[in-house]
Amino acid sequence: MDQLKQEAIKSYFAELVESMDPLRVMDHLAKLLSLEDMEIIREPHSTYQERNRKLISILCRKRETLEPFERFVKALEKTDANHEAMAKDILSTYRKSQEFHFLMLTTLNTVCISLNNH
């Protein structure tokens, strides 16, 4: 998963760890997660907070081409109203970061062009 998407999720890490239902969210991620991933998350002696930490950690390590962020947001949206609200917050944070990142790159590019013209 790319850095901006990880940062958006980490912005809500505490809320996700405390409020997310890891098994219900995981059910919506069956095509993304391996059987081994699911076994790690389902570990019988884990608290739901530990399961949430494991799920987030696994998702952050997934290749960007698998669209782990997008699938995670959709899984949250499909779970229930509380999870849907978290999905909206995470997506909003990501979009703001993306806009800021784009603005910074555009500004840097403008400065470089200006310096090259002098």
UniProtKB/TrEMBL annotation:
Pfam family for this entry, one: CARD_2
Keyword presence, Phosphoprotein: yes
Annotated CARD domain residues: 1-80
UniProt keyword list: Immunity, Innate immunity, Isopeptide bond, Phosphoprotein, Ubl conjugation
Listed GO biological process terms: innate immune response; regulation of apoptotic process
GO cellular component terms attached to this protein's record: cytoplasm
Name of protein: CARD domain-containing protein
Source organism of this protein record: Plectus sambesii
